[in-house]
Amino acid sequence: MSRHHRVLATAVLAALSTCFVPSVSAADTETKAEKVNVFDKGQMTVPESFERTEPQSRIIEHEFKVGEGDSTARLTMMGAGGGVEANIKRWQGQFSGGDAADQKTEKIEAGKWTIHLVDASGSYAERMGGGPFFGGKTVQREDYAMAGAILAEPEGRLYFAKMIGPADVVKKNRDAFVKMVKSIAE
Hints:
By secondary structure, this protein is α+β, with helices and mostly antiparallel strands.
């Protein structure tokens, strides 16, 4: 094939390829909210603004980044045990100082599920390596907050959702977090 024919063939193929590009409507480009399955007993609808990321630990089932740029919170989800009160005490014990009004718990019913909401703020003692029950370096994160939820399904199994990060990010996204955990009843 001569150079002239190759140039002509390339031009024809380029022209034809634009004829067969499927049209994309606004409905096609809309993102769908992700659903997280919980024990095959319910699903939580994760806000579209929460970005899925690779879990930082093998025990974490789902992990999302909440916020934008350098100021983001970490949302983790997993089935766990240990009892409701013991976990609330452990979670709150990871924070010191903070505004007393931000240290609270609330129990709500969502369909057949009981949800224990846990809020904490202040200086967060983040464990680096070793997991939540084993040693490892602890780093103090100042002006941090947590919005946590322990979802108790009717048969008694527990599922944890915790959003921890800079206090302003957590507080800004708390309503979306609460809406997400309540969606388990839908």
